[in-house]
Design a protein that fits this description.
Layout: H1 3-16, H2 20-23, H3 26-39, H4 43-50, H5 54-60, H6 63-74
Length: 75
């Protein structure tokens, strides 16, 4: 995409306040959160993810994410 078209496209997106995070499917976000929870140094590191937005908070409480988090804490 040429620079001018890209700039206009980005300006239009900003005007609409388009959120790319909201366009991601829940399964993908859950997979990402699962990987983050298993690589967190301690549970408090992962808690900061819960505070970013309502959607990440609700998806971070998915059973698959919690199992990975608890598996990381017990090892």
């Amino acid at each position: 995409m040429p620079y001018r078209k890209r700039r206009i496209f980005l300006q239009e997106m900003a005007a609409e306040e388009y959120d790319l995070f909201d366009s991601l499917p829940d399964d993908l976000v859950i997979s990402i959160l699962s990987m983050l929870s298993s690589s967190a140094g301690c549970p408090s590191d992962f808690v900061t993810v819960l505070m970013t937005c309502k959607r990440s908070n609700s998806l971070a409480l998915h059973s698959r994410v919690i199992q990975r988090l608890l598996g990381n804490v017990t090892h």
